[in-house]
Protein backbone atom coordinates (compact mmCIF):
# COMPACT_ATOMS: atom_id res chain seq x y z
CA UNK A 1 0.00 0.00 0.00
CA UNK A 2 1.49 3.32 -1.05
CA UNK A 3 1.23 6.52 0.99
CA UNK A 4 -1.76 7.92 -0.91
CA UNK A 5 -3.67 4.67 -0.42
CA UNK A 6 -2.85 4.73 3.31
CA UNK A 7 -4.62 8.08 3.60
CA UNK A 8 -7.93 6.60 2.44
CA UNK A 9 -10.25 4.72 4.82
CA UNK A 10 -10.93 1.15 3.78
CA UNK A 11 -13.99 0.87 1.50
CA UNK A 12 -17.04 -0.63 3.12
CA UNK A 13 -16.39 0.53 6.66
CA UNK A 14 -19.53 0.55 8.81
CA UNK A 15 -19.79 3.95 10.48
CA UNK A 16 -22.23 5.32 13.06
CA UNK A 17 -22.34 9.09 13.65
CA UNK A 18 -24.55 10.68 16.28
CA UNK A 19 -26.05 14.13 15.87
CA UNK A 20 -25.29 14.06 12.18
CA UNK A 21 -28.23 15.51 10.27
CA UNK A 22 -26.52 18.89 10.02
CA UNK A 23 -23.30 20.74 10.78
CA UNK A 24 -20.11 18.85 11.58
CA UNK A 25 -21.86 15.48 11.76
CA UNK A 26 -23.43 15.85 8.33
CA UNK A 27 -20.09 16.85 6.82
CA UNK A 28 -18.45 13.77 8.36
CA UNK A 29 -21.27 11.54 7.09
CA UNK A 30 -20.92 12.88 3.57
CA UNK A 31 -17.13 12.47 3.65
CA UNK A 32 -17.37 8.82 4.69
CA UNK A 33 -19.98 8.13 2.01
CA UNK A 34 -17.56 9.60 -0.55
CA UNK A 35 -14.98 7.17 0.84
CA UNK A 36 -17.35 4.25 0.07
CA UNK A 37 -18.31 3.61 3.70
CA UNK A 38 -21.68 2.40 4.93
CA UNK A 39 -22.97 5.22 7.10
CA UNK A 40 -25.72 5.40 9.71
CA UNK A 41 -26.64 8.69 11.37
CA UNK A 42 -29.06 9.69 14.09
CA UNK A 43 -30.31 13.09 15.14
CA UNK A 44 -32.93 14.56 17.45
CA UNK A 45 -34.42 16.52 14.52
CA UNK A 46 -36.56 14.07 12.51
CA UNK A 47 -37.16 16.54 9.68
CA UNK A 48 -33.42 17.13 9.33
CA UNK A 49 -32.83 13.36 9.16
CA UNK A 50 -35.41 13.11 6.39
CA UNK A 51 -33.82 16.03 4.53
CA UNK A 52 -30.28 14.64 4.57
CA UNK A 53 -31.50 11.19 3.54
CA UNK A 54 -33.25 12.73 0.56
CA UNK A 55 -30.00 14.44 -0.37
CA UNK A 56 -27.87 11.36 0.33
CA UNK A 57 -30.05 8.33 -0.53
CA UNK A 58 -27.38 5.79 0.47
CA UNK A 59 -27.40 7.09 4.02
CA UNK A 60 -29.11 5.12 6.79
CA UNK A 61 -30.61 7.08 9.65
CA UNK A 62 -33.22 7.58 12.33
CA UNK A 63 -34.50 10.12 14.82
CA UNK A 64 -33.12 9.79 18.34
CA UNK A 65 -32.70 11.90 21.47
CA UNK A 66 -29.24 10.77 22.51
CA UNK A 67 -29.79 11.95 26.09
CA UNK A 68 -32.23 9.04 26.44
CA UNK A 69 -30.63 5.62 26.86
CA UNK A 70 -33.60 3.83 25.30
CA UNK A 71 -33.21 5.88 22.10
CA UNK A 72 -29.51 5.06 21.89
CA UNK A 73 -30.18 1.35 22.41
CA UNK A 74 -32.73 1.45 19.60
CA UNK A 75 -30.18 3.11 17.30
CA UNK A 76 -27.56 0.45 18.04
CA UNK A 77 -30.08 -2.31 17.36
CA UNK A 78 -30.94 -0.66 14.04
CA UNK A 79 -27.24 -0.32 13.15
CA UNK A 80 -26.73 -4.01 13.82
CA UNK A 81 -29.72 -4.80 11.61
CA UNK A 82 -28.94 -2.40 8.76
CA UNK A 83 -25.12 -2.57 8.67
CA UNK A 84 -24.51 -6.02 10.14
CA UNK A 85 -22.00 -4.65 12.64
CA UNK A 86 -19.88 -1.61 13.35
CA UNK A 87 -16.31 -0.52 12.60
CA UNK A 88 -16.27 3.19 13.45
CA UNK A 89 -18.23 5.01 16.18
CA UNK A 90 -18.25 8.80 16.00
CA UNK A 91 -19.79 10.35 19.10
CA UNK A 92 -20.62 13.75 17.67
CA UNK A 93 -23.96 14.79 19.19
CA UNK A 94 -23.92 17.82 21.46
CA UNK A 95 -25.60 21.08 22.35
CA UNK A 96 -24.20 24.50 23.19
CA UNK A 97 -25.90 24.69 26.57
CA UNK A 98 -26.73 27.88 28.45
CA UNK A 99 -24.66 31.05 28.51
CA UNK A 100 -24.35 32.93 31.78
CA UNK A 101 -22.68 33.20 35.13
CA UNK A 102 -22.59 30.05 37.22
CA UNK A 103 -24.99 31.57 39.74
CA UNK A 104 -27.51 32.33 37.00
CA UNK A 105 -27.53 29.01 35.12
CA UNK A 106 -30.77 27.07 35.34
CA UNK A 107 -29.99 23.66 36.93
CA UNK A 108 -32.28 21.95 34.42
CA UNK A 109 -30.25 23.45 31.54
CA UNK A 110 -27.07 22.27 33.26
CA UNK A 111 -28.43 18.73 33.52
CA UNK A 112 -29.66 18.74 29.91
CA UNK A 113 -26.19 19.79 28.69
CA UNK A 114 -24.44 17.09 30.73
CA UNK A 115 -26.92 14.46 29.58
CA UNK A 116 -26.75 15.34 25.89
CA UNK A 117 -23.02 16.02 25.60
CA UNK A 118 -21.53 13.49 28.00
CA UNK A 119 -23.99 10.83 29.14
CA UNK A 120 -24.91 10.15 25.52
CA UNK A 121 -21.31 9.26 24.72
CA UNK A 122 -21.35 6.64 27.46
CA UNK A 123 -24.69 5.25 26.26
CA UNK A 124 -23.28 4.74 22.74
CA UNK A 125 -19.99 3.32 24.01
CA UNK A 126 -21.74 0.90 26.36
CA UNK A 127 -23.68 -0.69 23.50
CA UNK A 128 -21.26 -0.16 20.59
CA UNK A 129 -17.96 -1.36 22.05
CA UNK A 130 -19.07 -5.03 21.97
CA UNK A 131 -19.73 -4.60 18.23
CA UNK A 132 -16.34 -2.94 17.70
CA UNK A 133 -14.63 -5.83 19.46
CA UNK A 134 -16.14 -8.19 16.89
CA UNK A 135 -14.65 -6.46 13.84
CA UNK A 136 -11.18 -6.82 12.36
CA UNK A 137 -11.51 -3.72 10.16
CA UNK A 138 -9.34 -1.36 12.24
CA UNK A 139 -12.09 -0.44 14.74
CA UNK A 140 -11.99 3.12 16.03
CA UNK A 141 -13.88 5.55 18.22
CA UNK A 142 -13.83 9.28 17.55
CA UNK A 143 -15.33 11.57 20.18
CA UNK A 144 -16.16 15.18 19.41
CA UNK A 145 -14.82 17.44 22.13
CA UNK A 146 -13.97 21.13 21.61
CA UNK A 147 -11.27 23.71 22.07
CA UNK A 148 -13.31 24.33 25.24
CA UNK A 149 -12.01 20.92 26.31
CA UNK A 150 -8.48 22.30 26.71
CA UNK A 151 -9.14 25.92 27.74
CA UNK A 152 -11.28 27.55 30.42
CA UNK A 153 -14.46 29.10 29.06
CA UNK A 154 -16.13 31.73 31.23
CA UNK A 155 -19.94 31.92 31.10
CA UNK A 156 -20.06 28.56 29.26
CA UNK A 157 -19.24 26.26 32.17
CA UNK A 158 -21.78 23.47 31.42
CA UNK A 159 -20.46 23.11 27.87
CA UNK A 160 -16.79 23.32 28.91
CA UNK A 161 -17.23 20.74 31.66
CA UNK A 162 -18.59 18.18 29.21
CA UNK A 163 -15.84 18.81 26.67
CA UNK A 164 -13.06 18.41 29.24
CA UNK A 165 -14.73 15.22 30.46
CA UNK A 166 -14.79 13.81 26.93
CA UNK A 167 -11.01 14.18 26.70
CA UNK A 168 -10.62 12.23 29.95
CA UNK A 169 -13.01 9.59 28.65
CA UNK A 170 -11.00 9.19 25.45
CA UNK A 171 -7.64 8.92 27.18
CA UNK A 172 -8.98 6.34 29.63
CA UNK A 173 -10.67 4.25 26.93
CA UNK A 174 -7.56 4.30 24.74
CA UNK A 175 -5.75 2.46 27.55
CA UNK A 176 -8.69 0.16 28.26
CA UNK A 177 -9.45 -0.78 24.65
CA UNK A 178 -5.97 -0.74 23.14
CA UNK A 179 -5.41 -4.47 23.76
CA UNK A 180 -8.56 -5.06 21.67
CA UNK A 181 -6.99 -3.05 18.81
CA UNK A 182 -9.61 -0.30 19.19
CA UNK A 183 -8.21 3.18 18.75
CA UNK A 184 -9.87 6.05 20.63
CA UNK A 185 -9.29 9.72 19.87
CA UNK A 186 -10.97 13.08 20.37
CA UNK A 187 -11.25 15.89 17.86
CA UNK A 188 -11.33 19.38 19.35
CA UNK A 189 -12.88 21.80 16.84
CA UNK A 190 -12.30 25.49 17.34
CA UNK A 191 -14.57 28.26 16.15
CA UNK A 192 -16.51 26.58 13.33
CA UNK A 193 -18.24 28.65 10.68
CA UNK A 194 -21.99 28.22 10.57
CA UNK A 195 -25.37 28.98 12.10
CA UNK A 196 -24.59 27.31 15.42
CA UNK A 197 -21.54 29.51 15.98
CA UNK A 198 -23.58 32.55 15.01
CA UNK A 199 -26.04 31.69 17.78
CA UNK A 200 -23.24 31.15 20.31
CA UNK A 201 -21.66 34.49 19.45
CA UNK A 202 -25.01 36.27 19.71
CA UNK A 203 -25.77 34.72 23.11
CA UNK A 204 -22.33 35.57 24.48
CA UNK A 205 -22.59 39.14 23.12
CA UNK A 206 -25.89 39.53 24.94
CA UNK A 207 -24.45 38.19 28.20
CA UNK A 208 -21.56 40.68 27.99
CA UNK A 209 -23.76 43.53 26.71
CA UNK A 210 -21.73 44.18 23.56
CA UNK A 211 -22.58 44.07 19.84
CA UNK A 212 -22.53 40.85 17.87
CA UNK A 213 -19.93 42.36 15.50
CA UNK A 214 -17.64 43.23 18.40
CA UNK A 215 -18.06 39.74 19.85
CA UNK A 216 -17.19 38.13 16.50
CA UNK A 217 -14.03 40.24 16.27
CA UNK A 218 -13.10 39.15 19.78
CA UNK A 219 -13.38 35.49 18.75
CA UNK A 220 -11.13 35.98 15.71
CA UNK A 221 -8.50 37.84 17.75
CA UNK A 222 -8.10 34.73 19.89
CA UNK A 223 -7.18 32.55 16.89
CA UNK A 224 -3.55 32.60 15.71
CA UNK A 225 -4.60 32.14 12.07
CA UNK A 226 -7.35 34.78 12.49
CA UNK A 227 -9.98 32.62 10.81
CA UNK A 228 -12.65 30.12 11.71
CA UNK A 229 -12.42 26.49 10.65
CA UNK A 230 -14.95 24.73 8.43
CA UNK A 231 -16.96 21.55 8.91
CA UNK A 232 -14.92 20.06 6.07
CA UNK A 233 -11.74 20.58 8.10
CA UNK A 234 -13.23 18.47 10.90
CA UNK A 235 -14.47 15.80 8.48
CA UNK A 236 -11.01 15.52 6.94
CA UNK A 237 -9.50 14.79 10.36
CA UNK A 238 -12.13 12.13 11.04
CA UNK A 239 -11.31 10.44 7.72
CA UNK A 240 -7.60 10.51 8.54
CA UNK A 241 -8.14 8.93 11.96
CA UNK A 242 -10.19 6.15 10.34
CA UNK A 243 -7.58 5.50 7.63
CA UNK A 244 -4.57 3.16 7.70
CA UNK A 245 -2.40 6.27 8.10
CA UNK A 246 -3.94 6.73 11.55
CA UNK A 247 -3.52 3.13 12.69
CA UNK A 248 -1.10 4.01 15.49
CA UNK A 249 -2.82 7.16 16.71
CA UNK A 250 -4.79 6.60 19.91
CA UNK A 251 -5.46 8.41 23.16
CA UNK A 252 -5.03 11.80 21.53
CA UNK A 253 -7.00 15.04 21.80
CA UNK A 254 -6.40 16.65 18.41
CA UNK A 255 -7.25 20.31 17.96
CA UNK A 256 -8.51 21.52 14.58
CA UNK A 257 -8.85 25.17 15.44
CA UNK A 258 -6.29 27.44 13.77
CA UNK A 259 -4.63 27.52 17.22
CA UNK A 260 -7.13 29.17 19.51
CA UNK A 261 -4.95 30.86 22.13
CA UNK A 262 -7.58 31.56 24.79
CA UNK A 263 -11.36 31.77 25.23
UniProtKB/TrEMBL annotation:
PANTHER family: SHORT-CHAIN DEHYDROGENASES/REDUCTASES FAMILY MEMBER. Belongs to the short-chain dehydrogenases/reductases (SDR) family. This is SDR family oxidoreductase. It holds the Pfam family adh_short_C2. It comes from Pararobbsia silviterrae. GO terms for molecular function: oxidoreductase activity, acting on the CH-OH group of donors, NAD or NADP as acceptor. NCBIfam families: PRK12826.1-2.
Amino acid sequence: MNMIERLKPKAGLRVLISGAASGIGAAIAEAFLEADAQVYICDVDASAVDAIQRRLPNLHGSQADVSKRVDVERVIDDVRSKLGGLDILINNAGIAGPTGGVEDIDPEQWERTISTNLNSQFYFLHKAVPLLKQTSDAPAIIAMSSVAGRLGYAFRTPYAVTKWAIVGLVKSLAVELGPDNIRVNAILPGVVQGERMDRVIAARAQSLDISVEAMRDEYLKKISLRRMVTVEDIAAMALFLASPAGQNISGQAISVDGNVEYL
